[in-house]
Amino acid sequence: MNKNLKKYVVLILILTISVFSLSGCYKIYNIDNLAYAVAIGFDVGQENKIKLSFQLSVPGGSSEGGSSSQSDDTIINTIECSNLDSGINLLNSYISKELNLSHCKVIVFSEEFAYKGISETLYSLMNNIQIRPDSNIIISRCNAQYFLSSSKSKLEKLSARYYEVAPSSSDYTGYTEDITLSKFFANYTNSFSQCYGILGGVNMKETQDHNNTETSSQKDSNNKASEALISNKDDNATIENMGLAVFKADKLVGELSGIETACHQIITNKLNICNVVIASPFEEGKNISLRIRLKNKTKNKVTLTDTGPYIACKIDLEARILTMDENENFLEPEKVELIEKYTSDYMKHSINEYLYKVCKEFNSDIDGFGKYVSKNFLTWQDWLNYNWLDNYANAFFDVSVNTTVKSGYILMET
Fold it and tell me: Does residue 316 form part of some domain?
């Protein structure tokens, strides 16, 4: 075969391969053929096992200028089905495009659904190669479909972006935590701790049922999702993430408020900053606001005794005074020491209440104390036989809190 003929053969082969490769790429990867879900919601079905809601992104949509119950850049389709995979297949037969879950930001379970158990759904989610492990897990105090339809923010133009940045509030409030699918599944499958998710709700007038006997200082941090007294100009219902949803195995067993979530983050060394309000030690009826952070890592020690696990928590906090009054000089050493004592006593009381609540009421070790005691067992089978997650209900706690108070950020004595 001469050189010219060889060139023609090679050229024909290259063209043939290129034509088939390009045609296949168009069919599979062209975004015009795909419908992207930014959120998935799970509710208990009426006619079938699951009521599954998909919040789909609308190409070219915008959330600006709308007053509807959902952003203009998304639509919500709801299907009753037996499981996740069946629901996806049914939706694909209904819409004109193929459903794609690679851009899913949040997975929402209604509390009603979570109380019944979510193990089957959880494994299906983890087994789906399109769903990202960094998708957030939210347990909604209301219907998941209603939660998704209420998700909007005028500060973000796209719902997907809103879902992405909302959990980051944990960095500057301490009232929630960034819980992803991978973290949730890891806590569910290990023998050292239990799983928990972000507590979500829809904030509207009907859900703001507060105990009027509480003082205003208690109300702020004792709120859960949907309870904060927040209103907007349009008086529309909007989603709110505050607190944590606590699980034992695959079933929801209880809720934590904002301050209880902050206590959890202090114990687990995840707290960045958090605002707390204490009663003023100088004048009855007044409060002092402080911004606290971990000065040093919390030291947790677990000892097994005949009566149950003895858990000692040594906590070292740093606080900044936010409250300022022209008639008060918080720079005086005596006053600083008194505020330090009041803050330490308040945080010790709050942390003790939190620990005994999750231990005795929920019997759920979401703080992962099991990892501190597993080293005492000679073999892995011995550890499994001890059954820490059930024995945790017998634990008792010894909490010590030391707080160092700094007077303020800007106003200093001259």
Answer: yes
* Same domain (yes/no): 195, 52: yes
Tell me: the pLDDT tens digits for 207-265? Answer: 554 444 444 445 566 776 667 666 555 555 577 888 999 999 999 999 999 899 999 99
Residue 69 has what pLDDT?
A: 39
pLDDT digits (tens, 9 = 90+) for 325-379: 655 666 778 888 899 999 999 999 999 999 999 999 999 999 999 999 988 899 9
Are residues 197 and 323 located together in one domain of the fold?
no
What strand order describes the sheet that includes 309-321? 274-279, 287-304, 309-321, 396-406
Residues 306 and 362 in one domain: yes
Question: Is pLDDT larger for residue 411 or for residue 161?
Answer: 161
Same domain for 132 and 192: yes
Q: CA torsion 117→119→121→123, rounded to 10°?
A: 170
Q: Domain ends where: 256, 284, 299?
A: 256
Say how far apart CA 218 and CA 292 lie, in whole Å: 17
Burial class (CB in 10 A: 0-12, 13-18, 19+), 264: buried
Answer yes or no: are the C-beta atoms of 106 and 138 closer than 8 Å: yes
CA 45 to chain centre: 25
Same domain, 307 and 392: yes
Give 171's contacts (C-beta < 8 A, 6+ positions apart).
Answer: 272, 273
| Integer-rounded Cα radius of gyration of the chain | 26
Contact 250, 117 (CB under 8 A): yes
Q: From CA 271, how far away is CA 299, in angstroms rounded? A: 14
Give the pair of three-digit tokens for residue 20: 């088939």
Q: Are residues 38 and 92 in the same domain?
A: yes
Domain count, the chain: 2
Whether residue 242 is found in the same domain as residue 152? yes
For the full predicted model, state whether its pTM sits above 0.90.
no
Domain residues for the domain of 73 are 33-256
| pLDDT of 93 | 85
